Amino acid sequence: MQKKSLSSRAFWVIIIGGIVTGMGNGSVFGAAMMCFLGRGNFANWGGWWPLNYYPQTFTGFIDWCMIVFGLAFAGMMWIALKRHGAEESLEISPRPYLPDSRGSGSQPAERAR
């Protein structure tokens, strides 16, 4: 049986962690942008379905920021875990012996004498 990649084993961590974190950041971004720009042309606050997902409304803009940021963060987590898994799967060769500070290049067994 072949070992699954790190990104496939962490599927739910990517989905839940990435989207929740991204949506939290997206809501802060959307609210900060609204505070910075003012409500501007957002005459309608949004309301109930389907108005709350129209980007032209106040809540629709923030909801779309949350969705976009959530998907972006999930994508970044997938890429990061994929690259991390690739790094961990590399076989590391042992370090070559480095000479000691005296420059003699003696092996550790010779130093003990």
Describe the structure.
Helix 2 (11-37) runs antiparallel to helix 3 (58-89). The protein is mainly α and 113 residues long. The protein has one domain. The protein is 59% helix and 0% strand. The longest helix is centred in the middle third of the chain and has 32 residues, at 58-89. The chain is built from four helices and no strands. It is elongated and about 75 Å long. The mean pLDDT is 79.
Descriptors for this entry?
mainly alpha; 4 helices; about 0% strand; about 110 residues
Layout of strands and helices, then pairs:
Elements: H1 6-9, H2 11-37, H3 58-89, H4 108-111
Helix pairs in contact: 2-3
- What is the end-to-end distance? 49 Å
Overall radius of gyration: 26 Å
State the order of secondary-structure elements, H for helix, E for strand. Answer: HHHH
What percentage of the residues does DSSP assign to strands (E)?
Answer: under 5%
Number of domains as seen in the coordinates: 1
Q: Which percent bin holds the helix content? A: 55-70%
Task: Write down the overall geometry.
Answer: elongated
> pLDDT under 50 segments (min length 5)?
none
Structural class: mainly alpha
Mean pLDDT: 79
Largest sheet: none
Give the strand tally: 0
In DSSP terms (H or I, runs of 4 or more residues), the helix count works out at 4
